[in-house]
Design a protein that fits this description.
Two copies of one chain form a homodimer. Chain A is an alpha/beta fold and 344 residues long. Chain A has two domains: 254 residues, Spore Coat Polysaccharide Biosynthesis Protein SpsA, Chain A (Alpha-Beta Complex), CATH 3.90.550; 63 residues, no CATH class. Chain A has twelve helices and 17 strands. Chain A has a five-stranded mixed barrel with strand order 6-9-7-8-10. A four-stranded mixed β-sheet of chain A has the order 12-14-16-17. In chain A, helix 3 crosses helix 6. Chains A and B meet through strand 15, strand 16, strand 17 and helix 12 of A and strand 15, strand 16, strand 17 and helix 12 of B.
């Protein structure tokens, strides 16, 4: 795409990723871990954002406590690349703020909202798909990026495709959150449903207009007074899906077929990392004897497994954590039962 | 028993107990861990030895590297209580040396050979049983202590009872090492077999005479020159069972019914420690969520288990170790496959 058409790229770098506890924790969340490649997820994500938007048009939304670690991981960033949230209120207020900043810089500016913790490849297919979406923005149209599913994942949201609006861009006929397995299977088989990736494309001004009309819990007038901390304080905690996408009428889906993973829990490593010949995924100093299909993450010491299968074993800092691959998908259960950190 | 009848007590404190790796390691072997009560096994063992023999007649056989930790755990010991092996050559040479030292002090001295890592209770029943054995020594008779089995343990040696020689003391008709499960079941059902505890009772002079006749791999003449290091160097590595007990004719068994455990691997804790209501055994800082029948040992940090069962999880020093309760009985397999410390 030409320089003139370049969108802005917003990288959401808020959450903790508590399903990777104890490797992830508030001061070192998931996006700072090398879960996709041998670099922290956020380094790969920002590199994609720069490839898409150029370094000056990348905005990273994050909390105060992450400024130092993110600047350390990405030393080429400028302070102007960072939007430091005074408090976390979910993706609704975060994207409203980013859209406001972009619209002030360029009233016609197109904005692509990305996540710091997604694994995406290959880059060129990603850029082509986004480009197709950028070309279809305008006129109030709000686009989400839908991923062709390769399995009946029950942890994702799905979007049903309606009429084709532009090449590879469809009306969003229906959003469905986390369907049961049988339903998910039927969706995948039908070919009519894509995963809702949480990646969005829109003109910043169109998002702001939609918020003004549809989302009273995000009081934009508080931003227009130039006061971000007052704005966040006045916002409800709300996702952009609930505040806008599920309420808006001109919602579309850009169909994508590149490799995408939201690295939701330890099991994701089996999709993004190579395994040894016994099906084990290993990080750090690990010895395996008669053990298969385990995911083992070792920092600050060594881990030895003997005669075990389908486990997740993590040693990080003062904590050692042992669970099954199955239970690893349901980590919330731990935070209900112990003092361990909740998802921010 | 009266002061005059008091035997000498020899406590063997040599081995590493590598099946408790990584909690046990060469510089901190099993007997220094609190695996029976909340005190190191050796503290309980020496306390029993003192109750049996009096403090001056207790001899602890150990390696140089254990002198400091043992004196730290047992500050009341005198240097005269320690027999420091110049090198480890198994129980044969160790007990030959101890018998020699005892016979020099008292040519009629009776010697009870104990282990630093056994769990035994109650004390009075232990003392009564030993007393019965001591009374049956003399005339070249070598006694082992046989424990009434309460399960078909395949990891132990068994001894079949012959004719009754004295009250509760029988001729040893046959020794059987580690029988298969079906055989072990038949032994337990028969009532004719006891576990060979590895605890022995004999006049020191009788053991020395037997060694002189039966065990050329233990050249006692090297000791008679007063030179322990030359003696150990000249000895083969051999157990007292192989060198003497299996070759001697006048071997007896003292039948014992006190509680006894050789704390052979992590599973032993399920016999000696209390469990929580989900069947877990816990040492140190441990959180358990939806987890049962695990054995969890945490030093230098905390361990969280979520949704797992029948595991053994150990964190000690730089090492974290995860195995199943079943595999924990077969730890030798690890030392074949990795660089971890072998049993000394």
């Amino acid at each position: 795409m030409s320089q003139l058409e370049r969108p802005f790229a917003v990288v959401l770098a808020g959450g903790v990723g508590s399903r990777f506890w104890p490797a992830s924790r508030p001061e070192r969340p998931k996006q700072l871990l090398p879960l996709g490649t041998d670099r922290p997820l956020i380094v790969d994500a920002v590199e994609r954002a720069v490839a898409l938007a150029g370094p000056e048009r990348v905005l990273i939304v994050l909390g105060t406590h992450l400024v130092d670690p993110v600047l350390k991981a990405l030393p080429n960033l400028e302070p102007a690349n960072l939007l430091v949230e005074p408090e976390a209120r979910g993706t609704g207020p975060a994207l409203a703020w980013a859209a406001h900043v972009i619209a002030e810089r360029d009233p016609e500016g197109v904005m692509v909202s990305l996540h710091a913790d997604h694994v995406i490849e290959p880059l060129d297919e990603f850029l082509d798909t986004i480009s197709r979406g950028v070309a279809a923005t305008g006129g109030g149209r709000l686009l989400c990026l839908g991923i062709e599913p390769d399995r009946p994942e029950t942890g994702y949201g799905y979007v049903r495709l309606g009429a084709e609006l532009a090449p590879g861009v469809f009306a969003a006929a229906e959003f469905v959150e986390k369907p049961p397995l049988e339903t998910a299977r039927a969706y995948v088989d039908s070919g009519e449903y894509l995963w809702n990736s949480g990646i969005f494309i829109w003109r910043a001004a169109d998002l702001l207009a939609a918020i003004r009309t549809l989302a009273p819990e995000i009081p934009l007038e508080r931003l227009e007074n130039g006061e971000a901390s007052g704005f966040f304080e006045a916002c409800a905690r709300v996702t952009i899906d609930v505040a806008v996408m599920e309420r808006a009428s001109r919602v579309g889906v850009v169909a994508a077929s590149f490799g995408w993973d939201d690295v939701g829990d330890w099991n994701a490593l089996r999709r993004t990392w190579p395994t040894d010949r016994d099906g084990n995924i290993v990080f750090g100093s690990v010895d395996l004897v008669d053990s298969g299909d385990n995911i083992v993450w070792s920092e600050d010491g060594s881990i030895t497994l003997f005669g075990v299968h389908d486990l997740v074993v993590v040693r990080s800092g003062d904590h050692t954590f042992v669970t099954t691959r199955e239970a690893a998908a349901d980590m919330k259960r731990i935070f209900e039962a112990t003092d361990s950190p909740e998802e921010a």
